[in-house]
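Researcher: Next entry: GNAT family N-acetyltransferase (Streptomyces niphimycinicus).
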Amino acid sequence: MEATTDSGRDLPPGGLRPVLTTPRLRLRPLSEADTDWWVRLHTDDQVNQFVGAYTHRQAAVRLRDIRQQWVQRGHGLCAVELTSTGEAIGRSGLNWWETLGETEIGWTFARAHWGNGYATEAARAVLAWGFGALGIGQITAMIHHGNTASTTVARRLGFTPLREDSVLGRSCTVYALSSDDFAASEDRTPQ
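Model: Predicted structure:
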């Protein structure tokens, strides 16, 4: 599977805002304009079980922080849309953790779209971009204990456990994937 990158509108100072595409998905940088959608996505108790729910104000602050990361680091979280309809079905992307000195990948999808391989497809495109265009050497995935669906996605992508940790007050396993291991796994993935 190949992900392509297009430049987006509303470029931040000094940086490209990529749009990643796969055969079924379009990933575009999140912005404050996505606040209502972000709140709706995180309203479902099964969706927010591991990532939390947001008030409108909390969502606006989080999306402002995401936009700032795009400006400062050239990457951040993206809305994931179906290319066939334009419907936003989830989010995925990269998040820099200053306190850990790590770049993390994440994914969250609306329950109606679980079980279709979208998380794996979106994450694979983000990883290809992060390891390729951005030149990141290692990407982590912080997965809360009990989140078997995300653990399955991480393992499918080639992640392996790195350490046990606590993130935002919750226990998690931090998985890691190097650019070399990702490249080797992509060479073995049927196209």
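Model: Note for the record: The beta strands are 4-7, 18-21, 25-29, 77-82, 88-97, 102-109, 138-144, 160-167, 170-178.
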